[in-house]
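User: For my dataset I need records formatted as: sequence, then structure tokens, nothing else. Please produce one.
Assistant:
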Amino acid sequence: MSDPYTETIRYTADIIVVTPDRQVLLIERNWAPFEGHWALPGGHRDPGESSREAAARELAEETGVSVAPGDLREIGTWNQPGRDPRGRYITDAYLAVVPVGTPIVAGDDARTAQWWPLDALPPLAFDHADILAVAMDSTS
């Protein structure tokens, strides 16, 4: 019999990457859930890894963009139940500003990666539109 007070929690990190001309880097997911949908780069933390380190690693793996973990600005933590259909996921979100024209290449679990104007975004997977909105409010 399972303990009704025990819950499996998975920890992730997401990263909002923007340019000074107000472009944001998104990936098209290559796996369920939300396969084929646009999302922020991010993913699971590896054992012994901080969320900041995970955000920088996932960004490089999914888009080819390298940012030092120390250059990431923490935006907040999203831990609402139901934010991920796979179960309980808690994510820390970070912001990075990179130069206009930073090259990108899709990798890892990204079908493609693309720069999008902040005022013309596609629908986003998970609660990434909420995360992005908070990040943009914090830069105003």
